[in-house]
């Protein structure tokens, strides 16, 4: 699939996704970035490694900002701690050019994605239980690429 076609597909998927599916999309995108960063490390492509780790960090930061601490209680606190740990591992992998910490991040993200895949459809949940995803001021969907 060409880059343009893939971008158009992803944009359509994001624009028509419910909040739970948006979370799943973000986890899949972060996992893709982690895998690409690991491949770049193994291929000694330092610029690509940095680019992919930066994308994964941006995604994790957005996921962390979307956590509702008031409604989530200790679950929200634990989730943010997992995001923080993953961000630390990404920074470590970037600094040391070591794919080991990326494996750890991949495990965390895969586990979280699996949990979100087991969530019921949004229509099955009361609106108060659905996640919210804040949109950064000035954000345009066309500017976010995987």
Roughly how much helix do the residues carry, as a percent range? over 70%
CATH-derived architecture of the domain at 18-116: Up-down Bundle
Strand element count: 0
CATH superfamily of the domain at 18-116: Flagellar protein FliS
Identify low-pLDDT runs.
137-146
> Which class best fits the helix and strand makeup?
mainly alpha
* CATH fold node name of the domain at 18-116: Four Helix Bundle (Hemerythrin (Met), subunit A)
CATH class of the domain at 18-116: Mainly Alpha
What is the CA-based Rg, rounded? 16 Å
Q: Using the alpha-carbon principal axes, give the shape.
A: globular
| Strand/helix succession | HHHHH
Biggest sheet layout: none
């Amino acid at each position: 699939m060409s880059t343009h076609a893939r971008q158009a597909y992803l944009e359509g998927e994001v624009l028509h996704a419910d909040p739970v599916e948006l979370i799943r999309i973000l986890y899949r995108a972060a996992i893709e970035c982690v895998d690409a960063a690991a491949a770049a490390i193994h291929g000694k492509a330092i610029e690509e490694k940095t680019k992919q780790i930066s994308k994964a960090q941006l995604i994790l930061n957005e996921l962390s900002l979307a956590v509702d601490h008031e409604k989530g209680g200790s679950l929200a606190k634990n989730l943010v701690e997992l995001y923080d740990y993953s961000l630390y591992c990404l920074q470590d992998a970037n600094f040391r050019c070591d794919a080991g910490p990326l494996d750890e991040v991949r495990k965390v993200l895969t586990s979280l994605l699996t949990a979100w895949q087991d969530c019921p459809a949004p229509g099955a949940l009361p609106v108060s239980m659905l996640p919210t995803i804040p949109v950064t001021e000035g954000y345009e969907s066309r500017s976010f690429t995987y």
